[in-house]
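Technical annex, item 7. During the second reporting period the consortium partners agreed on a shared format for inverse folding records so that results from different sites could be compared directly. Each record opens with the tokenized structure and is followed by the designed sequence. A conforming record, contributed by the partner at site C, is shown below for reference.
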């Protein structure tokens, strides 16, 4: 059995679907601070059974101990991270408490239970404002805000923990820009606050649920002047997390690979304008939008080098722009 922290979040909930399809039972833990309980209904509709869910906080040591005592947990997917940049800037103590202290509490509970297999859902924000256009895992880490700094701290903690005992195996997955939704339309991104997910913003603007999309900058040194990012379908990310968990459960680790860091992206840049045009093409709807000045700190181009994930996980993204746009729009029609 797998414990998914942040289990009703965007990536973890879609990973729960992938786990169910692979026949791996899981228990979802979430405090519902940033995701709705209706996510559980979507999971039930897709998988055909109600998910095993516990409402609670990853910082609750007693609750974690009870979960490890009650269920035969073999590994943990840790996705219980706060991730809104603006909120992190306004409440840095909250972000470090939840993201860093929560991870330490989880690790201690895992140690007490003798469970030493962990996949950490990290973020490409650890790279900051990169000067490299194609980012390998060895690229400099220059986190620019509390959210990104907390992810770097957690990765460093996990590295130290993995080195402390020969039974530890940890994979930190640096996810690039997740978009899309489950193709059924029953599950997608549903944050309680405002989302910064560009494709979700496009869909909401198209549906008239928010003002027109603002495109920040049209004078970058890119083919069409708009910023380029590595957008990846959330179901591809879910499959990457599944493969990581399966690998940890199946294989022993050499001493130099107890903590491995891998990028998960498509390895292909897509500009804001290309994404907008693809959305219009694949949905048949026009996206209301307006041009705005560049935002300070935004990089021109930001793409993952995914060769390590291919080598170590046998994974690469399979879903393209058509699936990203259609699935995002199908979900938005139900949200």
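Designed sequence (site C submission):
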């Amino acid at each position: 059995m797998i414990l998914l922290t942040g289990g009703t979040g965007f990536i973890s909930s879609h990973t729960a679907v992938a786990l169910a399809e692979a026949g791996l039972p899981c228990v979802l833990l979430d405090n519902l601070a940033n995701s709705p309980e209706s996510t559980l209904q979507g999971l039930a509709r897709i998988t055909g059974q109600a998910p095993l869910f516990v409402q609670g906080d990853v910082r609750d040591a007693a609750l974690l101990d009870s979960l490890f005592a009650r269920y035969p947990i073999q590994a943990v997917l840790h996705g219980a991270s706060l991730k809104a940049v603006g909120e992190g800037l306004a409440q840095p103590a909250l972000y470090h408490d939840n993201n860093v202290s929560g991870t330490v509490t989880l690790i201690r509970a895992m140690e007490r239970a003798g469970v030493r297999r962990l996949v950490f859902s990290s973020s490409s924000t650890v790279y900051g404002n990169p000067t490299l256009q194609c980012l390998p895992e060895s690229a400099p880490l220059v986190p620019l805000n509390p959210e990104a700094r907390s992810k770097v701290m957690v990765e460093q903690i996990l590295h130290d923990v993995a080195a402390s005992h020969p039974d530890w195996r940890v994979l930190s997955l640096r996810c690039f820009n997740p978009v899309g939704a489950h193709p059924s339309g029953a599950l997608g991104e549903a944050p309680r606050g405002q989302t910064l997910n560009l494709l979700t913003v496009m869909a909401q603007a198209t549906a008239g649920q928010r003002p027109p999309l603002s495109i920040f900058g049209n004078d970058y040194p890119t083919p069409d002047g708009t910023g380029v990012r590595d957008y990846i379908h959330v179901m591809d990310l879910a499959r990457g997390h599944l493969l990581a968990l399966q690998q940890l459960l199946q294989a022993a680790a050499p001493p130099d690979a107890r903590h491995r860091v891998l990028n998960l992206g498509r390895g292909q840049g897509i500009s804001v304008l290309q994404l907008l045009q693809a959305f219009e093409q694949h949905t048949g709807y026009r996206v209301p939008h307006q041009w705005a000045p560049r935002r300070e700190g935004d990089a021109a181009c930001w793409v993952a080098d995914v060769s390590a994930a291919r080598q170590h996980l046998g994974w690469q993204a399979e879903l393209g722009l058509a699936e990203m746009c259609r699935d995002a729009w199908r979900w938005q029609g139900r949200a």
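The two ends are 30 Å apart (CA to CA). The chain has a mean pLDDT of 93. All partners now use this format for quarterly exchanges.
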